[in-house]
Design a protein that fits this description.
Membrane topology: Multi-pass membrane protein
Distance between the termini: 12 Å
Number of strands: 0
Number of domains: 2
GO cellular component, one term: plasma membrane
GO biological process, one term: transmembrane transport
CATH superfamily of the largest domain: MetI-like
Radius of gyration: 24 Å
Strand content: under 5%
InterPro entries: MetI-like (IPR000515), MetI-like_sf (IPR035906)
Order of helices and strands: HHHHHHHHHHHHHH
Subcellular location: Cell membrane; Membrane
Shape: flat
Helix content: over 70%
């Protein structure tokens, strides 16, 4: 219990630091975000209107930094992330809410699928080392070293374009209204196939390689030899003794990959112009949309912390040593 309380306190402290940094970002960057918005709009505003914009975006110069910090926390507790510059006057929370489901559906499903498939294949390949399965190791090594976006460009060149069987950009056909009707769902699935396969091939290869190496190491341990000597079945020794211990390092890696689901495939979404959170962040940087960049940064940071906290909970279940005091 003390281990869990310590880890909870650590993540709460880290979350507070991340939120504080997120608050300070627009106040530390060079330039003036509000004046940048006014200059981009090429409008003439009165002094009172400009002051109203500073208040609206939480940058009121008449208030101390501590008062602004208190207002920022009050906004966060009410789910208010500010107003987007590029989509003014749309709230940042609404922009993120529109983009986040696309990223979760694409990257979340492919990340989970690649971990499950890669881990299962890695366990079997490591347990059957020296067989024909070792022939796939050079292929997985090559694929795991190739960036997502490079595979995406190759996939677009081979399977998309004018005569291609898959669309090369977008999340659905223009003219369709997002909803649960069959036409939209079919179009969304068709547009997500190429980026999904791209992510799946690259990330699954890494899981196969790492799990296979861990299985080779664990298979030589004494407790595996003792399990064989006790007459346990081959499958039970492989799953309950070897794979369970070999899986521990992969849990941390999987937690990090889950946390990076939100923004880790930025380049893939840019290559395919996929309407996810990574593509939205790319547009926000180009438009100098500081509130939107703040909101996406905060979502990514908190998702990484939440995923690592889940990994710690998984460690408590998989490894009894973490449940012991001292």
């Amino acid at each position: 219990m003390s281990y869990l309380l310590r880890r909870t306190g650590f993540y709460l402290l880290t979350a507070w630091i991340a939120i504080t940094i997120n608050f300070l970002l627009p106040r530390l960057i060079p330039g003036d975000p509000v004046m940048s918005l006014i200059n981009r709009a090429q409008g003439q505003l009165s002094t009172q209107a400009i002051q109203s914009l500073y208040v609206l975006f939480g940058l009121n110069k008449d208030e101390s930094i501590f008062v602004q910090y208190g207002h920022y926390w009050a906004q966060l507790l009410h789910g208010d992330l500010g107003l987007s510059f590029a989509f003014f006057p749309t709230p940042v929370a609404s922009v993120i809410a529109d983009s986040l489901p696309w990223t979760l559906a694409l990257v979340g499903i492919t990340t989970l699928a690649s971990f499950l498939l890669g881990t299962a294949l890695g366990v079997y390949a490591g347990w059957r080392r020296g067989s024909w399965l070792d022939l796939v190791i050079p292929v997985t090594t090559f694929l795991s070293s190739v960036p997502y976006f490079w595979l995406g460009l190759i996939a677009i060149a081979l399977f998309a374009g004018v005569n291609g069987i898959f669309p090369s950009s977008g999340g659905y056909e223009p003219g369709l209204v997002p909803g649960w009707d069959p036409d939209f769902l079919l179009s969304a699935v068709q547009h997500s196939l190429l980026p999904a396969v791209t992510i799946l091939l690259s990330s699954m290869s890494g899981w196969i390689l790492s799990m296979r190496n861990m299985m080779v190491t664990v298979a030589a341990e004494d407790y595996v030899t003792v399990a064989h000597a006790k007459g346990l079945s081959e499958r039970r020794v492989m799953v309950s003794y070897a794979a369970r211990n070999a899986l521990l390092p992969s849990v941390s890696g999987f937690a990090l990959s889950l946390g990076l689901v939100v923004g880790g495939t930025l380049l893939v979404e840019i290559v395919f112009s996929y309407p996810g959170l990574g593509f939205e962040l790319f547009q926000a940087v180009g438009a100098k949309d500081y509130p939107l960049m703040q909101g996406i940064f905060l979502i990514i940071t908190l998702s990484v912390l939440a995923a690592n906290f889940v990994a710690d909970l998984a460690y408590l279940v998989l490894d009894p040593r973490t449940r012991r005091e001292g």
